[in-house]
User: Fold this.
Amino acid sequence: MIKVGFVSLGCNKNLVDSEIMMGACVKAGFEITSHAEDADVIVVNTCGFINDAKQESIDTILDMAEYKNKKCKFLIVTGCLTQRYKDEILEQMPEVDAILGVKEMLKLPEVIKDLYEGKQKIKVFDDTSSFVYYSSMPRVIATPSYYAYIKIAEGCNNRCSYCSIPLIRGKYTSRPIEDIVKEAKELAEKGYQEIVLTAQDTTKYGTDLYGKKMLHALLEELEKIEKIKWIRFLYSYPEDVDENLIEVVKSSSKIVNYFDIPIQHINDRILKLMNRKTTKEGIKRLIEKIRRSFDEVIIRTTVLVGFPTETDEEFEELCSFLKWAEFDRLGAFMYSQEEGTLASQLPQVDDEVKQRRYEKVLNIQRKISKRQNKKRVGREYEVVIEAKDKNNFYIGRSQFEAPEVDGKVLVFSQKKLTAGKFVKVKILDAFEYDLVGEII
Assistant:
């Protein structure tokens, strides 16, 4: 039996794509292996969002190519990098045997068979097609047994001037509510207690399919699934976090009090150049409204520093705002000049300036994160256990920590705990990113 190994890079949306491809391979009779040294075929699902991600993808492809000196016969590359550089990859990387576009992932088993039949340098792309997965498609979940991602839409219509995703993934396409609920029910029956909704922009969900925003309605339906414990949604744009959405989260016993709202910047001129559909005043009002609506809530954001033409004064305005807003979580990126985007044609900020601004934002946020975490000392939370570290602390998350991107709750327990178990924990200490607690 042919063994296929996968390396999935980039975001959780890309991970879902990898899970779909693994499902297609299993359906075709192949075996999935998590060990590259055992694989007959290695598939690298790449990210091509910013320069660092592109470099990681290239490095990983070259690393995986080394296994062709051992058992591996074929190296296949798919994902965002191939969609953007379909001609260059096959021409400049002779180690690669086949590439697929992001809309052709279900053709992977067919490509593998073609390679075994002697076909060489296969390139499968159809830029006129679109792809959205459905619950009927087989899927091999790669996350731990207690949480899973559900991609509720594909593509993006926002056209932020710095972002290449619409060029790669195409227009925004929502999945029907019924199909998402069906998938969530199936996951719940298999024991997945935390469902994480993801898309390029979850708050635009339904606008193409139903003619209006329907994330709140989807959440209400998911709330009814008995075996689900936590429901989380990511990537919500500030202009679309409205009263309906806040109220649904507030009234729910399952939707976690966690808002992931990428603002990118706060200066109105920069926001306009970014083609963002919000303003400083609008963002400020939203943060105040969310904080007023909940006794305890986490707000996570992302900011982009060094955007073309960003002045020192505009950057300092962002820093001042971050100190005012006191975001609980923050991800920062240095602007990456992406060909084909409008921002790439603007006067660029020097790399050293970008680096300096990036480091300053991180330093500001470290202090804020520690201060926000200190507020949680003495409080009690339900925590899901994920692993055990070398110091005999269990590692877990409360509803206020999203998988993969946030800090952890380190739990001291005399009892043996297993991954996926939910326990009650009292917080004893707090650091910049992590909390320490004990079993109650």
